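Reviewers of the previous submission asked for a worked example of the structure-prediction workflow described in the proposal, so we include one complete record here. The input consisted solely of the amino acid sequence. No template or homolog information was supplied to the procedure at any stage.
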Amino acid sequence: MSLHADPRDWFVGCGHGPGGVDELAVLLRHEAAAREVFAYETVSVPALAQTPVYGRAVLERNPLAVLGEVEQRTEARKRRQRVLSRPSRFVFVVREMTLRNLGVDRRTASDQLRHLALLPNTGRVEVRVLPRLMAGSYLDRYSFTLMRSEHYRPVVHVDAMYHSVFLDHPDDVAAYQAAAQAVLSNTLSVEESQALILHLANGAHAVASRTG
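From that input alone, the workflow returned the following structure tokens.
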């Protein structure tokens, strides 16, 4: 069974404004139904794992962002993150280079990193770091989310600036599942990732404290 309006569809494209993905009904339905979520981000922290302050800063970096829309979408992302309280399994993979260059002030970076490091303590979330040694591989190029539920076909979500694409053809899902396995096989363990993220958080906090 498919969550798409027409279960014969293997591909659904949805338009949205800059940063508007958090208000897409089809994405919210898939995340609400999912029992397993794998999210790999190449240039930022996965949306479900962002703090409000960091998430707002990411939205504000868009040159087309409008102040009212930034606040609206920040609130939408906070509502979307409620799925983390569900009895589901979440795996978030983020590149070490991203964690070392979050593109925000040190205090915001420290808070985001600490939040990311503590998420595994919920028992429902794994956070894995793809180390710098993997930089320059094809794994650096494509962000995607893979979702599985009990009653619907697995689906892949790929987001761009103005559009999101949802794929659930078995061949597409298999290709992204292979990509997810390739990513995971090269990550640090959960414990190693947590230690590295806390180390980076402490370093960012120390710099923020010295500079005020």
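The beta strands are 11-15, 34-41, 89-95, 125-130, 144-149, 155-159, 163-167. We consider this example representative of the routine output the project will generate in years two and three.
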